[in-house]
Protein: Glutaredoxin
Amino acid sequence: MIRIYGSPHCPDCVACKAAFDEKGTPYEFIDITGSMPNLKAFLKMRDHLPLFEEVKERGSVGIPAIEKEDGTITLDWEEVLKEYGMTAQPGKACSLDGKGC
Structure:
């Protein structure tokens, strides 16, 4: 099952979830702002994967982060949606610089 690491306070995460919901594609949403264990699990992943280096340099969080069924992690949620035959409705960027979460 796909896992989406995100926050209900992130417009990109809300848009990502809505697209999955609309098509009925199963996923597990892990709210990193909803519990300390979820936040710690996300930060452990983020701090150890090179994928997040650029995100951290920009001062962004790196959500939504998608863990695909094969275990790979991606930040390109729109591409994951395309892989499942869905189209993305982009959210409003939520970082201070306006370039995403």
